[in-house]
Design a protein that fits this description.
The complex is a heterodimer of chains A (114) and B (113). Chain A has strands spanning 5-7, 10-13, 19-24, 31-38, 42-50, 53-57, 64-68, 74-78, 87-94, 104-105, 109-113. Chain A is mainly beta and 114 residues long. In chain A, the strands form 2 sheets. In chain A, strands 2, 4, 5, 6, 9, 10 and 11 form a 7-stranded mixed beta sheet that branches. Helices cover 0% and strands 53% of the residues of chain B. Chain B is built from no helices and 12 strands. In chain B, strands 2, 5, 6, 10, 11 and 12 form a 6-stranded mixed beta sheet that branches. Chain B has a 4-stranded antiparallel beta sheet with strand order 3-9-8-7, with no helix packed on it. Chain B starts with a strand and ends with a strand. The mean pLDDT of chain B is 91. Classes of the chains: A mainly beta (114), B mainly beta (113). The A-B interface holds A 4, 33, 35, 42-43, 45, 48, 55-56, 90, 92, 97-100, 102-108 and B 32, 34, 36, 41-46, 49, 51, 90, 94-96, 98-106.
């Protein structure tokens, strides 16, 4: 099976712009979670989608949003970018969600905001 | 909600030496515990996990971790490390109540020749 894929791998944006990141989960996986990874804050949970519904959300402002399509592919959007949004954004898929199920991570999208 | 503390941000060791990466968690319910590894420029990969049963779990590349409920710990150990073990290691905790996996801040293991 193909692994989790994320596009694009690298992105440079200007403060105030918006950005959309894409994640394709492993075939058959219905849960997709998003994480932000920074040197200062580590790995922080953004949100989880299951069967096109947001099931759980971390403590991030409303500028961060996401959605999941019927084929389980997911996108996350960040509006009005700030310098502090520069990070590695990781997507992870699993069969049924978090809890006891292993999450499979993609390579990430490195976003740089200038 | 559950939380995870990784007590060491960096652990430098020499090749073939033993290593222990420490992880403590807090939770009011039964938990599932995981160790993930992240190599440079890659996503995280599952190293091992504890769901239930035997408190000692092992990975295919020689790592092991022991679930200690009384000390709320899940430390990762390897008796003899290799240069290729150099990576960042993350401890994570989740449960079926919140459906929300929490990660520790990570421990950067550097193996020196």
């Amino acid at each position: 099976k193909a692994g989790v894929t994320q596009t694009p791998r690298y992105l440079i944006k200007t403060r105030g712009q918006q950005v959309t990141l894409s994640c394709s989960p492993i075939s058959g996986h219905r849960s997709v979670s998003w994480y932000q990874q920074t040197p200062g804050q580590g790995l922080q949970f953004l949100f989880e989608y299951f069967s096109e519904t947001q099931r759980n959300k971390g403590n991030f402002p409303g500028r961060f949003s996401g959605r999941q399509f019927s084929n389980s592919r997911s996108e996350m959007n960040v509006s009005t970018l700030e310098l502090g949004d520069s990070a590695l954004y990781l997507c992870a898929s699993s069969l049924w969600g978090q809890g006891a199920y292993e999450q499979y991570f993609g390579p990430g999208t490195r976003l740089t905001v200038t | 909600a559950q939380s995870v503390t990784q007590l060491d941000s960096q652990v430098p060791v020499f090749e073939e030496a033993p290593v222990e990466l420490r992880c403590n968690y807090s939770s009011s319910v039964s938990v599932y515990l995981f160790w993930y590894v992240q190599y440079p420029n890659q996503g995280l990969q599952l190293l091992l996990k504890y769901l239930s049963g035997s408190t000692l779990v092992e990975s295919i590349n020689g790592f092991e971790a022991e679930f200690n409920k009384s000390q709320t710990s899940f430390h990762l150990r390897k008796p003899s490390v290799h240069i290729s073990d150099t990576a960042e290691y993350f401890c994570a905790v989740s449960d079926n109540n919140n459906n929300d996996m929490r990660f520790g801040a990570g421990t950067r293991l550097t193996v020196k020749p």
